[in-house]
Every structure is written in structure tokens, then in C-alpha cells.
Design goal:
The structure holds two protein chains of two kinds.
Chain A: H1 2-8, H2 11-40, H3 46-74, H4 108-114, H5 118-142, E1 148-149, H6 153-165, E2 173-177, E3 184-186, E4 192-196, H7 199-202, H8 205-220, H9 223-236, H10 241-266, H11 269-285, H12 298-306, H13 316-343, H14 353-357, H15 359-372, H16 378-387, H17 394-402, H18 406-420, H19 430-445, H20 456-464, E5 469-473, E6 477-480, E7 489-492, E8 495-503, E9 507-515, E10 524-526, H21 540-546, H22 562-565, H23 571-580, H24 587-594, H25 599-613, H26 623-638, H27 651-659, E11 664-669, E12 672-680, E13 684-692, E14 701-704
Parallel strand pairs in A: 2-4
Antiparallel strand pairs in A: 1-2, 3-4, 5-8, 6-7, 8-9, 9-10, 11-12, 12-13, 13-14
Chain B: H1 13-25, E1 28-29, H2 30-40, H3 45-58, E2 61-64, E3 71-74, H4 78-86, H5 89-101, E4 103-104, H6 113-129
Antiparallel strand pairs in B: 1-3, 2-3
Helix pairs in contact in B: 2-3
The chains are: A alpha+beta, B mainly alpha.
């Protein structure tokens, strides 16, 4: 069920839901066109009516596919990768569907939100019809061999002569069948005519020839193939009566076409009609025959066959019909632009790493929103600019700004949290709870002259949760400078280094440094490792710090770029630390490694690092190391994404390197797979991780974890 | 060999083929049955004979031993066996879908009572009009 819920929120399901709804009017319009066309073509031969009906019927799946493509294209890029636990990265973007101005109290948003649920029902229906169709086809194929016998050879000869007259390319076999209760043609590549037992002896030779001609006409017109395709369309669009009706028209006109062929060759419409009537009566007198409640269309066909040729239509009728067709086209054209804005959702781009960390644009956007909506009541303004300031997407912010009533705003807020709920089926919204806990924590711990949530540390904490490691030098003073910062001892401003092992959308091993360069208690984010150095005057930037110019410094991140982090470590060792063992090295080991001075020490360290992990220390082989490098090689081979991100850096690669091959891999949707681990130490049993290629560009991301809500991100 | 109808076993596919031939030709000798079957596919005379003997034991066919060449005939009419076989789950579940795949001179739906009387009228009128 949770997989289904996850699938429902994929862009494909959303597009499908919309397509299913749109096809209701599209199918009706096509049926209306067919109706008008048939009326126009009343005097025309059955062939043309048949061609029209086939065209309309074929147009139905094409329109459906085109609508699906348009709906897909109108979708926002990602389907809210609802963070898989409240602790992981930002909830990213989400597809909020909000019509510009819904009537108060009318929860159109609710309806739109549930729309994708149509998709699974439709899929089940299609499967039902297709399974049934395939079974029916298999049952038909059995009729070729079961309970059949060849008639006297003269009839096969006669059939071949008639087939030659119709210029049939393929040989047709004639058989008597104990199952057929009416003459039928089956098969396309190897067509067979099945006659009910007794048909050959009970009817006159001329009558049998009429019947055979009718069946041969089906074979010549490739009707069996068309009929199969028809069944495919019926199954695909089973929920629309217009499809069944159009299909019914095709079947009826097809029989008329064959009737016409028979009459053209045999010449006597009345005797042919009498043959059909006699055949039907024979069937009706069969002992087991239960009379059908609803009749076939035989009498109609007989009337058509025996009717006088119709007189030409008056000129008014075609004109009226043409007018009707035009009106339908116009209505269709008018309907398209009228409907599209309802479903057009803004394309939401995934926030780029730098932007996500940069509060400035969001805050200015918030300010704009306030300017535009002076009427917004204070609690809602506070919700927008304080409570969710860091996690709301720009498009959501814009949508919220356009709401006019408090009811709409309440609905919006409810939807906003619901979309981010990792367990939508439960009453608790872990995401919301965690979010407010983080705000409270930020206000409690980071407040200075400004409230905690507004500080850089508060923003990072609220957006990304508690860091995996904090290197705290809040008191300032003497500081053993790491070699890559120049080494030696210096005096610093109070500073903190926060390390996140992984931030979604940014990368692995993110270090954020905060410095209180003004002594006010407000730590701001910095990228310059020298900023904290109170004594360092030879660097111009440090001088600027002393001058207090950094008060206006734009927050930046000391990103995952390993070169900034440890420039003094020679490249091979840096690579070892930041790539080879990035996911498995402990924080203590990392700090210890960074403090090493010589390559000899580093070599020894690396050797010991692997030795500690060797499951069989007595042997020459280190299975752990072998397996680890095998995993890295595997990820680079299989998970390297089209954008060029090496396999080990992808989400799939990270999980694979940390936890090994999953116990089960399931395709959960067109663009998502889930990995199941029976057990992960420190996380729990039956951990399910869902990866989604939400943009459809091969960039697979860990999205959510519906199966094991308690499984935290790898710490 | 009198066996009650409901005790008759279901015919196998091979037996059903022989029954079809018997329904089509009427009472026949083994040679006739064999000749008809070989029009469609190769078959051994002895196999057909053996099958007919088994079917006689089961009661599916009746054997007239008055003449030198034994005459076999189906013990039940086609409709009866057809009904029995229609109990086939596959047939029952997918008959509708199968019918829509077959192309017949008549629609797969049987005529209603009203339509049948219309048909009869039409036929009577037709026969009157034909010299």
C-alpha cells in the first residue's frame, strides 16, 4: 500500500489521472463526431461508414496518448521527494495543486489531489480486460483443433474457388466444429472457417456458398486483425462508453461490408437475407438454446439488404450536420485552453545547492509576498515568513500569496504538511513535528540579538537537522591550526564547525563553519577558514574581519569540496579520505588522519584502518577491504549517472557502498525502484529505501522510505 | 450398454474429434471415421479403432455389431456433449471474450423472440415471392 501511495505521487500517475479525466470529454467529442459523420454518410456505402468509424476509434487511443504526453509535459519536474525521514535534507519541492481562486469551502484542491488515485483503478481495469482478452484469444485458438473435423473434400474445393474469386492471398481452411453455433472465421495468418455441425447438410448449396463468401470477405478485409486491435482499444479505454459504442459501430458496419460483398458476387440480396434468417432460426431451435434477452442486429441487416436504394438526401441535412461538426470542433478548441490553466503547474526546479543554503533570496521573496498581499492576516504571514521560511518552495510561496480567504490558507497549510508527511496514513506528521522541534531548538540555542531561527546556525539546523559532528570552539582563544590552514597555534574568534556526512542535493561530507567575529554571540556562516583567526593580519580578508566588514558577509557554505577542506594533504591521501573511505571512516579517524604530518604516518594509518576492519586478521587477505573496493567499482560501473556524477557519489552508490547489495530490488514505478535490506545494523529490520528518477533524466535520488519510517539516514 | 447420461465421462480431445466425425457423418464404420480424420491430419487406423473401442466401453458411442464391419454412432446428441463441455471453466469464463474475437455471419448474440418472429415473417414472405 505504501508503494502505491508513493507511486500515486509520481508525475506519471498525476499525468495519467488527468488524462483519464480529460478523455471523458475527448471521447465524447469523438463519439459526437462519429455520430454526425454517420448521419452525413447515411446514403454512402457501408465501406465508407466503416472507414469513418475505424478512423474515429483509432483516434481515441491516439488522443489519449497525446493527452498523456501533454499532461506529462505540463507536470512539474519532480514529484515531491518527501524526505524519507524528517531528519534528512530539505523537503525539496513539491507539486502543490492550487487553482488560482477556488470558491471558499470548495476543496477543489482535495479533488485534484486525489485525482491520481484514478490511475491504479484504471490500470487494474485494463489488466482485467487484457487478461480476459488473451484468455479469450487462447480459447479461440483451441477451436482450431478441438472438436473439429474436415468436411467432405468438395466443400474445401468450393471454398478455394470462392477465395480465388475474392483474390485472397492466404489459403483458408474449412472445418466443421462441434463448438461453433454459427459460422465463424478465426485467425489472421492461418485463417479457418468453422461451420456448425449440420450446417453443410441442413442448408442448400447456394446458401452455404453465401455463408462461406461472407466469412471469406472477412478474411480478405483483414477483419480478424482489425478486430483484435479493436479489443486492445476497448480494453485500454474500457471506462468510456463512447469507445464501446464506436467499437460496436465498427463491428456492425463490418458485417454490412461483408454482406455487400456477398450481394455483389451472388447478385441476389433477398435470397442472401433469407439465408441469414434461416441460419438464425436453425440456431434458435437448437435444444440448449436459451433465447437471448437482447437481440442481435440481424433484422436490421436484413432490412438494409432488402430495402430499396435510398433516395438522395435533401440538401438541408448535410448542411445541418456539417454545422454540428463545426460546432463540436469549436467547442473542443474552446475547451482546451479553458482546461489547461487549471492543470498547468509551474515547473519547479530543484533548488540548487548554493541557492538552498542561501537565505537571502528566500527572504526577499518573502518580503515581496508581503508587499503584494498586505491583507494577509498576521498568523498566516508569520507562518509563511517564519515557520516555513526555509522549507517552502518559491512556487508554493507564490501560490500562498495568491490565496484570498483564510479558509483557503488553512487548507493550503494542511496540504503543505500533508505533502511532506513521510507516513501519510497515520495521524502523526513526523515531518511537521520534527520541523517545529528544530525551530524550538534553534530559538533555544542560537538566539543572540536576533531570534535563533533567524541566525545562520538556526537556518542550517532547521533546514538540515542536527549535524553529524560539531567541532566546537565557541570560546575562541588558542587554536591548534590544522596543517592545511597553515599549522601552528593561533588565537581565534569563537567558531564552530558543523559536519554533515551527507546532505541531499549537496553532497557527502559537508562542513559548515560559523564564526562569531563580532563577539556578539551571533555566529555567521563563513567559507574562509582564516576568518576565525583574530590575529591573522597579513591576509586582506582577515583584515576586513578585523574591520567588522564581515557583518554584511553573505552566508556561504564551506562546501564538500575536498580541496578547500584539506589542501595540505597530498592528493592521493586526500582522495583516499574523501572518496575511497568517505562513507565508512569515523569522525575520530578523520580528524586523526588530518592531523598526520608525513606520508609515512598516513600509510601506516591507512594500513591500520583496514586491519581494524579485517574480519580475519590472521590471514593475508582482507575481505572487508576487498569487498569495499568491489562495491566502489560496482557503483562506478552501474550507477554513474548521465550527468557524469561518478557512481560512488550517487545515492544508489552511497547506499550500496555503506550497506552492500540489497536483499531485494523492486520496480515500484516507471521511474522508481526500492531496495529492501532485511537488516541494517544501527537502523533496523526490513529497511526499504526508495530511489526515484523524478526528472526522468537518469539522475536517481533517494526519495523516501515508506516501509521503515524509523530508519534514520545513515549517520 | 445402458449408462445414465450423467454418468457419461467427459470425452478427451481425441474422443471428441471422433464424436465430431460421428455427428457430422452419422453412424459410420471405423474406416469412414479414419478416412475423415486423415483429411485433416495423419492418424493410424489402429489408433482410431482402439479409441472407438474405449469410447464404446465408456458409453460415449454405441456399437452396432449386426454387420461384419461394426457401425459406431454417438450415444448422445452433439448439443448434450457441447453443454457438458461448456462446463469447462475456461469456456465459461472467457466465452464472451472469445466470441467477440470470432467473425461470424451472425452476431454472437442470439436473436430475441421478437426478432425470430420477424425473421419467420420475412422468410414466409420471401418464399411466397419466390416462384
Amino acid at each position: 500500500m505504501s508503494h502505491l501511495a508513493a507511486w500515486i505521487h509520481t508525475p506519471f500517475a498525476q499525468a495519467l489521472g488527468w488524462t483519464l479525466v480529460h478523455f471523458v470529454w475527448e471521447g465524447a467529442a469523438l463519439a459526437a463526431m462519429l455520430m454526425a459523420g454517420l448521419w452525413l454518410l447515411r446514403p454512402a456505402p457501408a465501406r465508407r461508414r466503416y472507414a469513418l468509424a475505424c478512423t474515429i476509434l483509432a483516434a481515441m487511443p491516439l488522443i489519449f496518448a497525446a493527452t498523456l504526453a501533454v499532461m506529462w509535459w505540463l507536470q512539474p519536474a519532480p514529484a515531491a521527494p518527501i524526505s524519507w525521514t524528517p531528519l534528512t535534507g530539505p523537503p525539496a519541492t513539491s507539486a502543490m495543486v492550487l487553482p488560482p481562486a477556488p470558491a471558499p469551502g470548495f476543496t477543489l484542491a482535495d479533488i485534484l489531489d486525489r485525482l491520481p488515485w484514478l490511475a491504479p483503478f484504471w490500470i487494474v481495469g485494463v489488466l482485467f480486460f487484457y487478461v480476459r482478452g488473451v484468455a479469450g484469444w487462447a480459447a479461440v485458438e483451441r477451436l482450431r483443433h478441438r472438436g473439429v473435423c474436415a468436411p467432405v473434400p468438395e466443400w474445401q474445393v468450393r471454398l478455394n474457388e470462392l477465395a480465388a474469386r475474392l483474390r485472397l492471398a492466404r489459403p483458408v481452411v474449412l472445418l466443421e466444429s462441434c463448438f461453433a453455433d454459427t459460422p465463424v472465421l478465426i485467425g489472421y495468418l492461418r485463417p479457418v472457417v468453422l461451420l456448425p455441425l449440420g450446417c453443410l447438410t441442413g442448408l442448400s448449396a447456394g446458401q452455404v456458398e453465401c455463408i462461406l463468401l461472407h466469412e471469406l470477405a472477412h478474411a480478405g478485409r483483414r477483419d480478424y486483425l482489425v478486430n483484435l486491435l479493436q479489443s486492445v482499444v476497448e480494453g485500454l479505454l474500457f471506462y468510456h462508453p463512447a469507445v464501446w459504442w464506436a467499437s460496436h459501430v465498427v463491428r456492425a458496419e463490418r458485417e454490412n461490408c461483408c454482406d455487400d460483398t456477398v450481394v455483389e458476387i451472388m447478385g441476389d440480396a433477398r435470397s442472401y437475407a433469407a439465408t441469414l434468417a434461416a441460419l438464425e432460426q436453425r440456431r434458435a431451435v437448437a435444444p440448449q438454446a436459451a433465447l437471448a434477452a437482447t437481440g442481435g442486429n440481424l433484422m436490421k441487416r436484413i432490412r438494409r439488404l432488402t430495402m430499396e436504394p435510398r433516395r438522395a438526401q435533401s440538401s438541408v441535412a448535410p448542411a445541418a450536420s456539417a454545422g454540428l461538426l463545426l460546432a463540436i470542433f469549436a467547442a473542443g478548441l474552446a475547451a482546451v485552453p479553458a482546461k489547461l490553466p487549471m492543470v498547468r503547474r509551474p515547473r519547479i526546479a530543484m533548488p540548487a545547492a548554493g541557492v538552498a543554503l542561501d537565505a537571502a533570496p528566500s527572504q526577499s521573496a518573502a518580503a515581496n509576498a508581503q508587499d503584494n498581499q498586505p491583507a494577509m492576516a498576521a498568523p498566516y504571514r508569520k507562518w509563511l515568513t517564519e515557520d516555513v521560511a526555509y522549507i517552502i518552495t518559491d512556487s508554493e510561496r507564490a501560490a500562498f500569496g495568491q490565496l484570498e480567504t483564510d479558509v483557503e490558507r488553512e487548507n493550503f497549510i494542511e496540504q503543505f504538511w500533508k505533502l511532506r508527511d513521510p507516513t501519510p496514513d497515520t495521524v502523526e506528521n513526523e515531518f511537521k513535528e520534527e520541523h517545529y522541534r528544530r525551530i524550538a531548538y534553534a530559538n533555544g540555542h542560537f538566539a543572540s540579538a536576533i531570534p535563533g531561527w533567524k541566525t545562520d546556525r538556526g537556518r542550517i539546523y532547521i533546514t538540515y537537522g542536527p549535524p553529524d559532528e560539531i567541532d566546537d570552539h565557541s570560546l575562541g582563544g588558542n587554536y591548534q591550526r590544522p596543517p592545511d590552514e597553515g599549522g601552528g597555534v593561533t588565537s581565534t574568534y569563537p567558531f564552530q564547525q558543523w559536519r554533515y556526512r551527507y546532505i541531499e542535493g549537496i553532497g557527502a561530507n559537508v562542513i559548515v563553519e560559523f564564526v562569531d567575529s563580532t563577539g556578539s554571540g551571533e555566529f555567521h556562516m563563513t567559507m574562509d577558514p582564516s576568518e576565525k583567526d583574530a590575529l591573522l593580519a597579513r591576509r586582506p580578508q582577515a583584515a576586513a574581519v578585523a574591520g567588522g566588514a564581515f557583518a554584511a558577509a553573505k552566508p556561504r557554505i564551506a562546501a564538500a569540496d575536498p580541496q578547500h577542506e584539506v589542501p595540505a594533504i597530498p592528493a592521493p591521501y586526500r582522495r583516499w579520505l574523501n572518496e575511497d573511505v568517505a562513507y565508512i571512516v569515523t569522525n575520530e579517524e578523520r580528524s586523526a588522519f588530518k592531523n598526520l604530518k608525513t606520508d609515512g604516518e598516513r600509510e601506516t594509518f591507512i594500513e591500520q584502518f583496514w586491519q581494524r576492519r579485517d574480519p580475519t586478521p590472521g590471514t593475508a587477505r582482507n575481505e572487508f577491504k576487498e569487498e569495499h573496493y568491489r562495491r566502489i567499482a560496482y557503483t562506478n560501473l552501474h550507477f554513474t549517472d548521465p550527468a557524469g556524477l561518478p557512481g560512488w557519489k550517487t545515492d544508489l552508490g552511497r547506499i550500496y557502498i555503506m550497506y552492500g547489495p540489497p536483499d531485494a530490488v523492486t520496480q515500484t514505478g516507471a521511474r522508481s525502484i526500492s531496495w529492501t535490506y532485511r537488516f541494517i545494523e544501527g537502523i533496523g529490520n526490513d529497511v526499504i529505501l526508495v530511489f526515484e528518477d523524478s526528472q526522468g533524466n537518469g539522475e536517481v535520488r533517494l526519495t523516501m522510505d515508506p516501509g521503515a519510517p524509523h530508519a534514520g539516514p545513515p549517520k | 450398454m445402458s449408462v445414465k447420461p450423467h454418468e457419461l465421462p467427459r470425452p478427451t480431445d481425441a474422443e471428441l474429434e471422433i464424436l465430431t466425425v460421428l455427428w457430422s457423418l452419422g453412424p459410420s464404420t471405423v474406416r469412414d471415421v479414419h478416412a475423415t480424420i486423415t483429411r485433416r491430419k495423419p492418424a493410424q487406423y489402429t489408433t482410431v479403432l482402439k479409441t472407438l473401442q474405449i469410447m464404446a466401453e465408456k458409453g460415449l458411442v454405441e456399437r452396432d455389431e449386426k454387420q461384419r464391419a461394426h457401425i459406431y454412432s454417438a450415444s448422445r446428441p452433439r448439443e448434450w456433449t457441447q453443454q457438458q463441455l461448456a462446463g469447462d471453466l475456461l469456456q465459461r469464463a472467457f466465452g464472451g471474450s472469445a466470441k467477440s474475437l470470432m467473425l461470424g455471419a451472425l452476431s454472437s448474440q442470439r436473436a430475441s423472440r421478437k426478432e425470430l418472429s420477424e425473421l419467420r415473417e420475412f422468410l414466409e414472405e420471401y418464399e411466397k415471392g419466390t416462384p
